[in-house]
Structures are given as C-alpha cells and as structure tokens.
Write a structure and sequence with these properties.
The chain is of the alpha/beta class and 202 residues long. Helix content is 24%, strand content 17%. Helix 1 packs across helix 5 (184-194). The radius of gyration is 17 Å and the shape is globular.
Length: 202
Amino acid sequence: MKTGALWIDLSSRNRMRVLVGCECSGVVRRAFRACGHDAWSCDLVDGDGGEHLRCDVRTVLDDGWDLAIFHPPCTFLASSGARWWRDRRADQWAAIAFVRELMAAPIPRIAIENPIGRLSTAIRRPDQIVQPWQYGHGEVKATCLWLRGLPPLVPTNIVAGREARIHRMSPSRSRSRDRSRTYPGIAAAMASQWGSKQALYG
C-alpha cells in the first residue's frame, strides 16, 4: 500500500476499500461508510471533513481500491453546455481524456457518473441512466452511469412529484457544487447494492 494513512486490515470478506473520486460533499463516501466500508472521497478542493483526500485523484488510483465511483467534472461534457463546445474544444478533449484515464484505472469495479452529454458519443453509451425519483426523491435529473464489474442499480423507492428543481436552481457561488451533489437515495442504493464482494462476485 502506498499511502500509509489509508492502510486497513481487510479481514472481513465484505469490507471493501472504496474511492469516491471528484467528490467534496461526502454524500457517497458516508453512504459506504455507514455500511461498514473503508470509503474515502477525493477532490482538488477541501471536502466536508472526515475521510477526504485533497489531491488529484489520479495520484491514488493504484492504492489498492476494491471499488471506485468517479464524478468527473461535467462543465465541458454535459449537454446543458453544448453551446460552448465549439469554442472550448481543447477543454472538452482534456475532460474526455481524464474520463478515459479513470475508466482505465487498475480497480476491478468502477462506476463513472455524468449527465447526458458528450461522453455517450466520444467514448460509448452509458450502461444505465438513473433518476432521483427512482430512489426516493421527487425530482428529475437524468444521470448516466458507465459501469465496469458492477451491475446496474435497481430502483429502491419510486415516488411521484417529479420536479426539475436542479434545472431551475438560482445562480449562486455554490450552484455548481449543489448541482453536482449526489442524491442520498442514489448513494444509499450504490452502497447497499454494490457494497458486497461476496454477494456480487462470489
């Protein structure tokens, strides 16, 4: 193990080391830790406290993780910003190259999360598109998942009252961070459904 601070005794068969890349909110990290996993978030900015690494996620990809969930920045990838793609082509290709690096990480189970956008044509179509209303939140926000070594998520709590709250969010300094925050219901589904090596992989 390269990073001494991350050393953990994996004596439990189902306890996994989970990396949540490009996350500063800690929502997904906390969901996995609540299920007993050694989960760490990682981002270039400070997190919400707790088990958070402030660094380029690419520097810790080979630190012995069992599962990684990546939330690469969507500024130059999401369809909502398509009007800027022509003028920021170099930035977009850099963002796509970053996602390719994450997909090729030496980690057996990987999920890449991003809105509908450029990745579907530049790399491949997503394995799944999930909505908050499938996991207990009465809102609409299509989120694509590219999966390796993981099954698609199963809806846990389909609800009515589907509102596009994120789309209508008012401008603010925290708007980008708030828009990218994972819904707790989806995070809980990831932790409960992807959090067992024994159940998923024998």
